[in-house]
Specification:
Length: about 130
Amino acid sequence: MRRYSLFAVGLWVLLLFSAPVGAQTAIALGHTEVGTASFYHDRFHGRTTANGERFDQGAYSAAHRTLPFGTMVRVTRVDTGSSVVVTINDRGPFKKGRIVDLSRRAARDLAMVDQGLAKVKVEVLSLPLREV
């Protein structure tokens, strides 16, 4: 019996620590984060995003490090209260302190193109039925 218990504990530990790096934790509707938003440089227009789509500066899309692809979020500029709804279709931003990278259209609607950065609140509105 003791051998089985050690085996079960060992298997549990192996499974626990073998999760892929960046594995998702459960995200609920209404989950929010506050931090700095940036937006994509024009040179990324037309390139392939992490989920396989072509990036379009004119679309309402964004990159987030961990939210599942297809998640719809409301991004609200903290100082003005203006907001946009975007769909997560890429990974990033990879610069320390930033929580979301927006398409130029979304950044323009938040009036942050001239500054390049803005403090925002990101709120999960809907999750995909399955991660793509």
